């Protein structure tokens, strides 16, 4: 399967957060509090992508919610901390978000 540059970027972002030693001390409120930081990072990244990724607020919000959702899953279930699962889930979220936006 081919993955979009944005899916790879978001996967890297998730893995950076998950692999940080402080992640194990987070709670769900801490993860939710990351929303604006994640949103801004995705927004910055989309300025570098081809026009197929519109910088529409709905699209950016959907992708950001996907990242936050994955962080919650990985917090709840350490077995979900699998790069292939994270990458596939984010690619699917991005593809579905393009349809919605």
**Beta-strand percent range:** under 5%
What does the radius of gyration come to? 13 Å
Q: What is the mean pLDDT?
A: 89
Order of helices and strands: HHHHH
- Count of DSSP E strands? 0
Number of domains: 1
Report what the structure shows.
- The protein is mainly α.
- It has helices at 5-19, 28-33, 35-46, 57-76, 83-100.
- It has one domain.
- It contains 5 helices and no strands.
- Helix 1 (5-19) runs parallel beside helix 4 (57-76).
- The longest helix has 20 residues, at 57-76.
- The radius of gyration is 13 Å and the shape is globular.
- The two termini are 23 Å apart.
- The mean pLDDT is 89.
What is the compact description of this entry?
This protein has helices at residues 5-19, 28-33, 35-46, 57-76, 83-100.
Key attributes of the depicted protein:
101 residues; mainly alpha; 5 helices; 70% helix
